Fold this protein.
Amino acid sequence: MGYLFDADTEVTRRADGAYDAEISDRWHALSGAPLGSYGLTIGLRALAHEMPFPHPLSVSAYFLRPTQVGPAQVRTEVARIGRRMATGQTSLFQSGKERLRAVATYTNLDKADGGTQLLGHLPRSTTPPDTAFDPLDDVPLPGFSLLDRLDFRVTEPPGWLQGKPSGDPACQQWVRFADGRDPDLLSLAFFWDALAPVVLEVGETMSTTLEATIYLRRRPAPGWLTCRARTRYLTGGLHEEDMEIWDSTDKLVAQSRQLALLP
Amino acid sequence: MGYLFDADTEVTRRADGAYDAEISDRWHALSGAPLGSYGLTIGLRALAHEMPFPHPLSVSAYFLRPTQVGPAQVRTEVARIGRRMATGQTSLFQSGKERLRAVATYTNLDKADGGTQLLGHLPRSTTPPDTAFDPLDDVPLPGFSLLDRLDFRVTEPPGWLQGKPSGDPACQQWVRFADGRDPDLLSLAFFWDALAPVVLEVGETMSTTLEATIYLRRRPAPGWLTCRARTRYLTGGLHEEDMEIWDSTDKLVAQSRQLALLP
């Protein structure tokens, strides 16, 4: 059975070891251009073919130039293969120009042992309550094709969407694929970028990711993901945004941090 | 006037474009081996020669193998040079094996414009009070040569050092170079790794960094740095550690996040 996320991130290995891919118009951000993490996911699918372990554990991506709808090429490189972990690199090119570069470590998370202590606070709830609603349901956002791919839920409408930024650059939202595809580790390396930047709540209008590092902490259970994001420091037109992603069984499955630039 | 940190991170460009360096025994961690961020700093000094902007802004490092005292070679690559930012990559080799790989974006932070909003909380104080003391003053730690290079101050002795982990994996410490060298951006990409991991406060005995990303937010003023670290999630033998570094004028100068593995 075919899900769009899988079809649209497919890569084909060529004789020279590079991979061919196609950036579709189905994963556009609010800006009307492909979401940065969509191209990253394509790069990671290629790299996964070269790694002897199944699960991405840490991914650090530098977004060098915007991606565009159309053909793309991915080149990968293995940096080190160890007993429990392997590290490699993936670069996505379009028209001969490098669009993004990521270094990533892979492992087998099913074999991870050692203690677990959750010292942070759980989100309020990891499944949407009956009172939750779709924050973007009535909002006309032409070109923002991502909205047709994902379901979002919030308990309270974001202030920025009502023209009244709350002053608190934070949010908690539920998200899932609209076509019923369950989340996996690869999709967590995509979802961190799917929410509106929380600096919209302090009056900013957009933000461009320069770098993002995602730690994949656990394979997510089927169902809704809970995304909790926060920005603490905005200095000289730059800000970080941290996100935690929790699965439907109240387990932390990913952490991301990005550095982004205001226009 | 020569400071040890500058002498011990020096790189020499070779005819083939690579750089030669020497890892000294003066920057050893508690483990008795060179601190990971010491090798990173050498890699960044080489990369800085290839970048048209003076200041590292974001650095993502993967620590592939431990470094050792002795000769090292650094290979750099430019990924993209833009109008305001440039991104490149640096790899440090010893005995033909890649020890660490980092991707980094450089800019000119003196030309950064745009708003500043500090939404996080300032540390309690950015200069040590009269009651502060050196936490490691009376502790015999042979091989831990870093202790001779840096001054540390705390207001309260860490629980782990007294054999009574506090249960709260967090700390705040002041740090500076012992020989009077003032902090700069390059040294911030070193200092994030200079404190004991805060998981010692939940009974762990050591921790190995797999990946670290450091955002350099501002050029630090002379004087003490205040480092504030916290771990929130320890799962399957892995944990993140976040650090903020503040300068002596109460400005946030760096943020780091690392993913580390328990033995």
